[in-house]
């Protein structure tokens, strides 16, 4: 599925969804208004029997929530559930990021201390030379 978006103010306020033949919804949802339209066009590929389906959603004067609901209905999308393994992975990533920040701060302090020592040694060498 490909979603096109145009930021030009002169373009109509519509969301265009392109499906390939295998990903297109099998049935068109019933609509009471003319918020959506559907078109089938042939695609150029290995066989000419493949069809590409395009659906458009009118977004004019619609809130983000209304657009999302319309998109879900038209595309027959299903919300993804958060799995326990996803929660565990998120926790692991957060933990690694915290450790990385701590290690970066420790290295910053270490490098500053080493630079001060090198500057002191260079100053001592300069005075005795």
Automatic annotation (TrEMBL):
Organism name: Blumeria graminis f. sp. tritici
Listed Polar residues bias regions: 29-51
Name this protein carries in UniProt: Bgt-3909
Region Disordered: start-end pairs: 20-51
């Amino acid at each position: 599925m490909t979603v096109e978006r145009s930021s030009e103010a002169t373009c109509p306020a519509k969301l265009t969804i392109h499906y390939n033949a295998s990903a297109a919804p099998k049935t068109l949802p019933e609509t009471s208004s003319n918020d959506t339209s559907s078109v089938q066009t042939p695609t150029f590929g290995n066989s000419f029997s493949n069809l590409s389906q395009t659906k458009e959603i009118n977004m004019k004067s619609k809130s983000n929530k209304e657009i999302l609901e319309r998109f879900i209905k038209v595309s027959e999308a299903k919300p993804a559930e958060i799995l326990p393994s996803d929660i565990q992975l998120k926790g692991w990533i957060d933990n690694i990021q915290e450790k990385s920040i701590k290690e970066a701060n420790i290295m910053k302090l270490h490098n500053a201390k080493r630079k001060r020592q090198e500057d002191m040694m260079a100053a001592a060498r300069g005075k005795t030379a």
